[in-house]
């Protein structure tokens, strides 16, 4: 249940692709409610414990180093031409860091309450993104006042400068 001894994730047992090209992943079942389901029942101390655990997990993910063969922004089969300008652009606006990319309360399972222990699930969007991406995505997809106002900035490095631009762009494009 632990990745790199500090990132609690379900243990992966295997995977397969069926005849219709659907991918199935076999992994450990983590018992417990999602953080979204139990957030309002948690006390201030428990919420702080969750916040501290998430901060440590994110810090651990940020220390992972991208291998030289992982430098692609799109898949190998893409025909987008040179990726150099895209890579240079991303590096100008932020270092590339390993990111869960969907750090929302519904993707965090509370596996224990005494003391509070969490496990992060739904890693399908995880990958190497600009360092601001985790914050922008978490902030943009969360409208709950307390979580957004009091905890997201404690868990992730605030990047309100980039978030404001990204949010304005999304609204201008008609995406909420």
From TrEMBL:
> Which SUPFAM superfamilies does UniProt cross-reference here?
Protein kinase-like (PK-like)
Give the domain of life. Answer: Eukaryota
Protein's name in the database: Protein kinase domain-containing protein
């Amino acid at each position: 249940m632990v990745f790199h001894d500090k990132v609690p994730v379900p243990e992966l047992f295997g995977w397969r692709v069926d005849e219709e090209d659907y991918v199935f992943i076999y992994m450990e079942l983590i018992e417990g409610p999602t953080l979204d389901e139990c957030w309002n029942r948690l006390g201030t101390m428990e919420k702080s414990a969750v916040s501290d655990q998430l901060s440590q997990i994110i810090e651990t993910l940020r220390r992972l180093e991208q291998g030289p063969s992982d430098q692609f922004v799109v898949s190998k089969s893409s025909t987008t031409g040179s990726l150099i300008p895209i890579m240079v652009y991303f590096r100008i606006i932020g270092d590339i860091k390993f990111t869960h990319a969907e750090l929302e309360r519904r993707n965090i399972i509370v596996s224990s309450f005494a003391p509070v222990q969490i496990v992060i699930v739904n890693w399908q969007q995880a990958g190497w993104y600009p360092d601001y991406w985790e914050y922008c995505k978490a902030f943009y997809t969360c409208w709950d006042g307390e979580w957004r106002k009091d905890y997201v900035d404690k868990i992730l490095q605030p990047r309100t400068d980039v978030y404001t631009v990204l949010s304005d762009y999304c609204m201008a494009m008609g995406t909420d």
